[in-house]
Design goal:
globular, six-stranded mixed beta sheet, PGM_Phosphatase, disordered C terminus, 224 residues, Rossmann fold, 4 helices, alpha/beta, single chain, His_PPase_superfam, phosphatase activity
Length: 224
């Protein structure tokens, strides 16, 4: 058996979210038609790979993204609660530019410590659970490849930790667009490289791509 194991951590595809809410961990948010196309595109991209394990966050949008990948490899889809979205006090609220929850003074108390952050699940807690999920996927696919489908913020925090960057950051600068793959390569039990690809980039709306300028009325729903 090879001592090289590859774990692809994928962000889910676009979600049907007409009200522009930060949906967080709320149930009932499914992939849009475009999001389904993104999932299928990534499944096609990964079809030639030696994938032996596919696991997702328990949220619908993640499971729906992972399903075509699992089916393409004849695998049963597993779930891991550690891959879930980060907890956020603004869940269920709008969070756009100039028209969202930040305009209301009663919400300002949640913004006192951006280094933790004070509005949601601490970054270090995200690191612990995401590293646990990553290692579990590595063990399940040892010598082969695995896919974990999760959410933007936990994926970015995981990558930042592995690459030894500070965990607090500007959300606009996350390199983790919809349906992207952040790939961790292990030699034995040690991560030896991190890669990033966007197999469905041409399907991602311009205002939702990494580094895009925020537009009023088009919330990016950070951390989704």
């Amino acid at each position: 058996m090879s001592d090289i194991t590859v774990v692809h951590v994928m962000r889910h595809g676009e979600v049907e979210n007409p009200d522009g809410l930060l949906y967080g961990r709320l149930p009932g948010y499914h992939l849009s038609e475009l999001g389904q196309r993104m999932a299928e595109r990534v499944a096609e991209h990964l079809a030639p790979r030696d994938i032996t394990h596919v696991v997702s966050s328990p949220l619908e949008r993640a499971r729906e993204t992972a399903t075509p990948i699992a089916e393409a490899h004849g695998l049963e889809l597993a779930t891991d609660a550690r891959l879930i979205e980060a907890e956020n006090v603004f869940q269920g609220k709008t969070f756009g530019v100039g028209d969202g929850a930040l305009r209301r003074p009663e919400n300002w108390k949640h913004l006192v410590n951006p280094f933790k952050p004070s509005w949601g699940e601490p970054y270090l807690e995200q690191v612990v659970r995401m590293m646990g999920a990553l290692d579990a996927a590595k063990d399940a696919a040892r010598g082969h490849e695995a896919v974990c489908v999760s959410h933007q913020l936990p994926i970015w925090i995981l990558r930042s930790f592995v690459e030894r960057r500070r965990l607090w950051h500007d959300p606009r600068k996350r390199q983790c667009t919809l349906a992207s793959l952040t790939t961790f390569t292990y030699r034995g039990d040690k991560i030896v490289s991190v890669g990033y690809t966007e197999p469905a980039r041409e399907l991602v709306p311009v205002h939702l791509r990494a580094g895009a300028k925020l537009v009023k009325g088009k919330s990016k729903a950070y951390g989704a």
